[in-house]
Structure formats: structure tokens, C-alpha cells
Amino acid sequence: MIGFKAESFNVKTTAIWEEDKKGRFVTTEWKEPIKFSCPPIFGGTSLPSPEDLFLASVATCTLTTILHICDRLHTKPESLSVTTSATFEFDKKSNDFTAATINCDINIYGEKFLLERACELIPKYCVIGKSIKPTIKYEVIINPTP
After folding, report:
1. What does the pLDDT look like over 12-37, one tens digit per residue?
2. pLDDT for 2-14, tens place per residue?
3. Which of 3.30.300.20, 3.30.1370.20, 3.40.50.2300, 3.40.630.30 would CATH assign to domain 49-144?
4. Can you tell me the mean pLDDT for 85-107?
5. Degrees (nearest 5) of the Cα angle 111, 131, 57?
6. How far apart are CA 140 and CA 107, in angstroms?
7. Is 113 in a helix, a strand, or coil?
8. Which end of the chain is more exposed for a tag (fewer CB within 10 A), N or C?
9. pLDDT, mean over the chain
10. Rounded CA separation 55/132 (Å)
């Protein structure tokens, strides 16, 4: 990442089954258990599913990447939101559900010129986006400051 000096960092997540189709996970930095379940379509509850958490990782990585790049460009968005979505379709070859594409909608307010530069760099620096199989389609809406 731009200006980042570390050569590596470690992240560890432990998922623990609790009951029925529910569980919890704990991560390296977040010691409080976070509850999850399989999607309701497969008998889960209204807790976040692994698919929700997967898309959340793309959204949060995209958002923090934009903020990091903006720091390097000496600008700051007035507001920023990232929404991710995907359709998981049944693949007869693998006999499982997969997502071919993730839609990543970025809505950002601020200084248009620098924010455009920052958003152009997302695919290059977003660690999660570069690490996953589905293609990410970025749609950026920059609302310039009046």
C-alpha cells in the first residue's frame, strides 16, 4: 500500500460452531465474539452469514483503501459510503454456489479531482479485492463540493 512500511502482517480468525446452524468468530484484533449463521434460505437465522461477511470485507477494505489513498493525496472526503452486492448462483460443475462478480458502489463527496485519482487506485491497492476470485465491478459516484 502507498507509504506502508511493513513487509507483512498476520490475521487469524477462529470460527466456532455453537448450535443448529449458528456460530461465532473471533479475530486477531477483535476479541469479542461476533455471531453468524448460514443464510436464512438454507435454514439459518437473521444473523450475518458468511456471504454477508465476505461482501462486508470487500466493502470495508475498499473504504479503508480509499481513506488511506486520500491521506497520501492530502485530501479527505466529506462523506463516503461503499455498498457491495453479489448474486450467488448454483454451479452444476462444482455443485455449489459461487459469485462471478461483486458490484461495489462507491458514493463519495469532496474535492473531485483528487477523489477521482484516489478511486482510480482502488483495484491496485485493495488487499481483499486483489485476493479474491470474483471480479469486482467498481461504480464510483463523486459528488463535488459546491
Report:
1. 888 888 888 888 888 888 778 889 99
2. 565 667 778 788 8
3. 3.30.300.20
4. 91
5. 60
6. 6
7. helix
8. C
9. 89
10. 11
